[in-house]
TrEMBL record:
<keyword id="KW-1133">Transmembrane helix</keyword>
<feature type="transmembrane region" description="Helical">
    <location>
        <begin position="12"/>
        <end position="30"/>
    </location>
</feature>
<feature type="transmembrane region" description="Helical">
    <location>
        <begin position="86"/>
        <end position="105"/>
    </location>
</feature>
<dbReference type="InterPro" id="IPR006694">
    <property type="entry name" value="Fatty_acid_hydroxylase"/>
</dbReference>
<dbReference type="InterPro" id="IPR050307">
    <property type="entry name" value="Sterol_Desaturase_Related"/>
</dbReference>
<protein>
    <submittedName>
        <fullName>Sterol desaturase family protein</fullName>
    </submittedName>
</protein>
<feature type="transmembrane region" description="Helical">
    <location>
        <begin position="150"/>
        <end position="170"/>
    </location>
</feature>
<dbReference type="Pfam" id="PF04116">
    <property type="entry name" value="FA_hydroxylase"/>
</dbReference>
<feature type="transmembrane region" description="Helical">
    <location>
        <begin position="51"/>
        <end position="74"/>
    </location>
</feature>
<keyword id="KW-0812">Transmembrane</keyword>
<feature type="domain" description="Fatty acid hydroxylase">
    <location>
        <begin position="94"/>
        <end position="229"/>
    </location>
</feature>
<keyword id="KW-0472">Membrane</keyword>
Length: 282
């Protein structure tokens, strides 16, 4: 059973990923929430290429990934749910819930610690907000995130099937809640009681720092409400808010090579580079 799960994990994740990506891209065409000034051909190549690089990096450094870590923990009896045996019907939802809480606190950590923010701000430097923004993370952030995830999975002794469900949910909801899609306000109000909606998460990508430091949840919305980081709406409204961060406003920063070196650039240096570019164009 464990060998079957591990061998089929990449195919399961890839199939669901492609299905959700295609569905969200079509939804964005049919019912866009905001008009985009930066076109897809300027943004999507970098966002999709960084995803490929992230995937290759993780598979190289963590060949077993989080599901493999769960299988190793089960074989060796590591973790809470092996020390204190729990039936699968209880261990599975608890594992998904606790892993989601760990991702929430990890997200807050990446905003609070300056050198981690340098890595994470690449995700926020996208000048528009759509399904591919949910795939855009610096490879070093992905490596650190996977290390934290493997540690949490091992400490919990989470069942491998729970870890697979969590990984699929996290990837799918990240694409969903970054979607440039329109939902009826009443439906959005109801949905955000059980899942992070695009309108809820879009606030997190505001250029206004107090809004950036809110709505950290990717999947479940409860942590933001519980720990006081929930913000209902952006002050400027969803149609007028500015997406991104102040340091990286030049569309050329959307190229893959520029995205990769963004953590090395200080705010002053990046502003000087952009001022020089604009000056030379004048």
């Amino acid at each position: 059973m464990s060998d079957t799960l591990q061998s089929h994990e990449p195919l399961i994740r890839l199939g669901i990923f492609l299905l959700v990506l295609a569905a969200m891209a079509l939804w964005e065409v049919l019912a866009a929430r905001r008009e985009q000034r930066i076109r897809r051909w300027q943004r999507w190549p970098g966002n999709l290429l960084i995803l490929v690089l992230d995937t290759l990096t993780v598979r190289l450094l963590f060949p077993l990934a989080a599901v493999g870590a769960a299988l190793v923990a089960a074989e060796r009896g590591w973790g809470l749910f092996h020390l204190v045996p729990a039936p699968l019907w209880l261990a599975l939802p608890l594992s998904v819930l606790l892993l989601d809480a760990a991702i929430y606190f990890q997200h807050r950590l990446f905003h609070a610690v300056p050198w981690l923010w340098r890595l994470h701000r690449m995700h926020h430097a996208d000048l528009e907000f759509d399904v591919t923004t949910g795939l855009r993370f610096h490879p070093l952030e992905i490596v650190i995130s996977m290390g934290i995830k493997v540690a949490v999975v091992t400490l919990l002794g989470a069942p491998a099937v729970a870890v697979l469900i969590f990984e699929v949910l996290l990837n799918a909801t990240s694409m969903y809640n970054h979607g440039n899609v329109r939902l009826p306000e009443r439906l959005d109000r109801r949905l955000r009681l059980i899942v992070v909606t695009p309108d809820m998460h879009r606030v997190h990508h505001s250029i206004v720092r107090c809004e950036t430091d809110s709505n950290f949840g990717f999947n479940l919305p409860w942590w933001d409400r519980l720990f006081g980081t929930y913000r209902d709406q952006p002050d400027a409204g969803h149609l007028n808010m500015t997406i991104g961060i102040a340091e990286f406003r030049d569309p050329r920063e959307l190229r893959l090579d520029r995205m990769l070196i963004q953590p090395l650039l200080s705010p002053k240096a990046s502003s000087a580079i952009q001022s020089g570019r604009h000056g030379s164009q004048g």
